[in-house]
Amino acid sequence: MGRKAKRRRRISLIMAAFVGLTSLGVLAVSPEYVLFRARLMFSIFDLGSEFVLYPFDHRTHDGLTLRSWYNPPQDEKPTIVYFAGRDGDLIRKPAHLLSLAENGYGIILVGYRGYGGNPGRPNERSMFRDAASLLSQAEDEGLAPNGFIFYGYSMGTGIASNAAVQVRPIGLILEAPISTFGEAVRQQARRFPTWLVRTHFNNLARIAELDMPILILAGGRDTVTPPSFALALAAAREPSVNLQIYDEANHFNIIRLGGRDAVRQFLEELEIERTKRDLVIDLELKDPQLGWNALRRRFVRA
Questions:
Q1: Which residues contact 57 (CB under 8 A, 6 or more apart)?
Q2: pLDDT per residue over 31-52, tens digit each?
């Protein structure tokens, strides 16, 4: 083989290697690109109601200031912390929570880095840390004097469940949850090599660590996060999970097709349990000999 032929062969090999590595790099980032690309720009004035939300800015571990929105609780109600889906919709999708706020529940609509005019670029690890710092600051500033209830939708279920491991809220609501992000990718592209997926959002691992009441809402016709994801999560945390699957619902209309009532009932049940616990504490302070078993018999008779 001549010198020129060898040179051409080396150049061909280098070009092939470059194309291969470039393709591998594109594959490696494509799931995260798809996950975070549909980021909405919104104005809180688009609410179209008289409900008032106040800005809540918090500092992140890497020096960013991220804006979220809140309304304080009334009547000793807990504060619902909402983690949005991958488009970051804090206006239309959580609209059903605003009526709960009108009934006294506090609301925090969490603003993600890179979403809604916030600085930074979204990634799983940073979003986990952002959520932790937001909750810590909210607690320090008295925005949730009666405790938290976490509410995650779609991608936001991964952030909500991870936060629940660290903060231990009163309750956890997961609407259209993923089981893991790898499974969500496989749902859309079955042949994609999941070892290239760097984002985890591993709800299966997180939910096994939780001991608070959990409500899971799923749509029977959801092709983004199918009900099999919800079933797997419920199986990992029986019996503390209340699983509701709405056969006619898809990824976007679970609340309209029955989820709204399930959320209200779940919150009412949490209120009843809190009332029982407060009564136990009050009775024990008055009479240390009165144990939980005696109190339970009173509720059974009632």
A1: 65, 66, 67, 68
A2: 665 566 656 555 555 555 567 8
